[in-house]
Amino acid sequence: LMTLGYKPADADKLVRKAVSSLGPDASVEALLRSALS
After folding, report:
1. How far is the C-alpha of 23 from the C-alpha of 16, rounded, in Å?
2. CA distance 6 to 27
């Protein structure tokens, strides 16, 4: 997400939200899709 221009704190927040929604075993692809939606 930081490569896409997100600030580290914002990227962290989005990924934490995605992990809480999808679970810790979710794929990186699924987490990215969730974080970007």
Report:
1. 10
2. 20
* Cα–Cα distance measured from residue 17 to residue 34, given in angstroms and rounded to the nearest whole number: 9
pTM over 0.85: no
DSSP-assigned letter for residue 14:
H
| Rounded Cα–Cα distance for residues 10 and 1 (Å) | 9
- What is the C-alpha separation between 5 and 21, in angstroms, rounded? 23
pLDDT tens string for the chain (37 positions)? Answer: 999 999 999 999 999 999 999 999 999 999 999 999 9
CA 10 to chain centre: 9
